[in-house]
Design a protein that fits this description.
Length: 228
């Protein structure tokens, strides 16, 4: 996974994005707003946005950012308010992972009905709400092909490893309400049919995701402590 870090000026801020030009020969599963689902994809974009992100057309915004980088064909685009410049990378026996970890609002997946969404915060001035994401975005690259069931299984395995890492890093949560993931698999050879945490490739995914998210969460906590 050859990540390129690129920068842009937006709303008076200098913001980073990572671009993975994976090229042909990949099938991806993703929960991202742009290019989500299962299918062939040639690139992955993870773009930082301001904390008080007020645009109501994130898919169009991602498409604009992708076009500005010359990204063509099917791809996956994700947004985060976490520092993309601090992307953490970890590898494990052929599995490669990159993660951006923002934990402004640590969240339990199961909350009582009617619980206010803390990721909706009022903007200064008119009192309208804006999305202020913390967001953990994870990209996983696996060199072997996987059938649809194994791709879904890989997402579950990666999510379990993410939650384990957050708890070990001292964050009482399963993630944030806006987390996204992308798992990219190769297309040459016989597809794997299982990617649970005790399978060959699932265990590698779990270890790499765990290591990346744990390091990112500890870095986030250290920066919070430094601010006092």
């Amino acid at each position: 996974m050859n990540l390129e870090t690129v920068w842009r000026e937006e709303d008076g801020r200098r913001l980073a994005s990572t671009v993975w030009r994976a090229g042909p020969g990949h099938r991806m599963i993703s929960s991202a707003m742009l290019g989500g689902g299962i299918g062939p994809a040639r690139w992955v974009l993870n773009a930082q946005v301001p904390g008080a992100y007020a645009r109501t057309d994130p898919v169009a915004h991602l498409a604009e950012l992708a076009a500005a980088r010359g990204l063509e064909g099917p791809g996956v685009g994700m947004l985060t308010a976490a520092s993309v410049a601090r992307t953490v990378r970890r590898d494990d026996e052929g599995v490669r992972v990159s993660a951006t970890v923002g934990l402004r609002v640590p969240t339990w997946a199961a909350s009582p009905a009617g619980t206010p969404d803390p990721e909706l915060a009022p903007l200064d001035g008119d009192g309208t709400s804006a999305w202020t994401p913390g967001t953990i975005n994870i990209v996983v690259a696996v060199p072997v092909p996987m059938n649809d069931a194994a791709l879904v299984n890989a997402v579950v395995t990666a999510t379990e490893a993410k939650t384990q890492a957050l708890l070990e890093a001292g964050f009482p949560c399963t993630g944030t309400a806006s987390d996204a993931i992308c798992v990219a698999a190769g297309t040459s050879g016989t597809p794997e049919v299982f990617a649970g945490p005790r399978s060959t490739w699932g265990s590698r995914i779990a270890r790499a995701v765990h290591a990346a998210v744990r390091a990112g969460a500890l870095d986030y906590a250290a920066r919070l402590d430094a601010r006092g």
